[in-house]
Amino acid sequence: MKLFLIVALFLLNPAVHYLIFAEEELTDFEIKSLTLDENFYRDSLKIEEIFNQLSSIIRYQTNQQYEIENVINEFFDSDMTNEELWVLLDEIYANTRGIVEGADNLVSTVSFTTSSDLEYAKPLHYTSVEILYEMRSHIAKNNKLTTDLIDTLSEGDLDSYNKLNGRTRVINSEFLEIMVKHFLTTAKKIPSTYIQKQMILLEAESLSFNLIVQKINGLVISGDLTKKMFIDYERSLKIKYKDFKNSRSYKNLKDTIINLERAVDSAAVDETSIYAVEQYIINAELYADSLKRETELNNELYLFYKKHIDDLDALNTDPKTVASLDSLLSRQNFQNEETVKYATKYQEAALAVLKVLPDLIK
Predict the structure, then answer these.
(1) Cα dist. 314→220, 317, 319, 321 in Å?
(2) Cα angle for residues 161, 227, 327 (degrees, 5° grid)
(3) 35-52 burial, b if ≥16 CB within 10 A, otherwise e?
(4) Is 346 in contact with 52 (CB distance < 8 Å)?
(5) pTM above 0.85, yes or no
(6) 180 to each of 36, 148, 201, 202, 203, how far by Cα in Å?
(7) Burial 208-241 (b: 16+ CB within 10 A, else e)
(8) How do residues 17-44 score in pLDDT, each as one tens digit?
(9) Chain CA centroid to CA 16, Å
(10) Which run of H or of E encompasses 324?
């Protein structure tokens, strides 16, 4: 039972999303060997911490872009003065400085070569560092978009601003495509009996659908969406949503969590370690439920755009349509914030488990 707990916890950790890229599945013996290897453990802990920090930077950048949009909307909908507007925009602009350098400093502390002597640790470590550098590249691209948004506003070019504002959604969806690719590749390497496989599949299925809706939303904002483009995206959307609705990942996740709970109950480990595992289980469930809600809201948005695809101008000119869209986007933004919150707690709980892992395998 204790071996099951060790293996389950190792695969429970989100850092392992990016670690299991061997040509074949790791055996229980190999997983235990990696977990007992102090050098690999130290490397993994460092990578996980940097991954969480880079994720926080990306979330901060997204919030900056939403903040610019909210400030502009408030400017047009209230008696905010031009001076007050630029106090807020200048502050956002100032806060972009140092972001890319901070990301560079984080990834530069990690080597592509693991300190572990285990042969099967080497490709796993290399791939996990590779995703950190992909995140760093995304941060640099995203940071330029944020400053470009404010630069176009300073020139009074609202058309260019709207196009760039839509472009931010497209850029973020492109990053999600990278994440989905890694998730699906990783899932193939993990036995179906492990909890992490079900969580990875659920994330991938949700993101695969949501990122297409996000692209459409960005094209609506930029004014570049056409009916032909929408029809092309719709083909993929229907398939992705059907896959999500028919998937057993959510049910399988719940079942594997029950198995893990039983393993924890019967394992002879200290209270601190048990608490860390229990918190991870709680946050895994909360995150999974939030992913489901976010996907359903994105489906609502897709259906809304489908309803108005023959009259896209109404999205900006018809008061009733505008109000309905604003309400839907408001609910979507709230749910996105909730998903981000639970994803953060999920990562934090996973890191806590990784830190007590040596105690769990004594």
Answers:
(1) 12, 5, 8, 6
(2) 60
(3) bebeebbebbbebbbbbb
(4) no
(5) no
(6) 29, 28, 9, 10, 8
(7) bbbbbbbbbbbbbbbeebeeeebeebbeebeebb
(8) 444 444 455 676 777 777 778 888 888 8
(9) 15
(10) helix 319-360
